[in-house]
Design brief:
This protein is an alpha/beta fold and 200 residues long. The chain has helices at 5-15, 46-49, 65-73, 83-97, 117-128, 144-152, 162-169, 183-189; strands spanning 58-61, 101-104, 135-137, 156-159, 175-179, 197-199. α8 links the parallel β5 (175-179) and β6. α3 crosses α5.
Length: 200
């Protein structure tokens, strides 16, 4: 199964003469159908930030822990941008040019390993010296449904993890992505949003 037209075309090319339309199929990522489940106990100050009648916009930002550390260990993704400095500039600009509160949402959880979005998010906050009354890292969600609920509370979302952006796209949250692989364009194009893909 491929989740978008671009991936399906890649599948056909890779399969070559072994391509079988009865066996090789085009579908949609199942994360689009995941039902968000409220996180019952978001900590303060996030609890107030998530209120429907909040007084300021809430921006969600997902930092991909793999990409955050990758350029320091050899740039295996082949990016031409400096991912860290790009996110630092983006966060500073949001702080300087808006009154939005910014919630960093880990999507691959855990601490002390290279893929940890939470560790990368905290490193971004430290690098920018972001004030706690404007920027918070969401706690590691209980599961994917709770993470999707958190993202669905945002007024705008930018992520690098594919499933973090699918959580936004499938809950009608305006969304952009910094793409580190071919998969992002196809998924965003499947919902008419390919112009919101920044190719890293």
């Amino acid at each position: 199964w491929a989740r978008d037209v671009d991936s399906f075309e890649n599948l056909k090319e890779l399969a070559g003469s072994a391509f079988d339309p009865e066996r090789h199929r085009l579908g949609v990522d199942v994360a689009f159908a995941l039902v968000p489940r409220p996180d019952a106990t978001p900590p303060s100050p996030l609890r107030d930030w998530l209120e429907p009648d909040r007084d300021r916009p809430l921006v969600g930002l997902n930092v991909n822990g793999d990409v955050w550390v990758d350029q320091k260990r050899g740039n295996t993704f082949g990016l031409t941008i400096d991912y860290r400095s790009t996110l630092e500039r983006l966060l500073r600009r949001m702080l300087d040019e808006s009154d939005a509160r910014i919630m960093l949402v880990p999507h691959v959880i855990g601490h002390g390993h290279n893929a940890s979005d939470g560790d990368a998010s905290r490193a971004l906050i430290d690098a920018v010296r972001a004030p706690a009354d404007r920027v918070q890292v969401a706690p590691d969600p209980v599961g994917a449904a709770e993470a999707k609920w958190l993202i669905a509370q945002c007024d705008w979302f930018m992520g690098t993890r594919m499933h973090a952006t699918i959580a936004a796209l499938s809950t009608k949250v305006p969304c952009a992505t910094i793409a580190y692989s071919l998969k992002a364009r196809g998924v965003f194009d499947s919902v008419g949003q390919s112009s919101h893909v920044a190719n890293a």
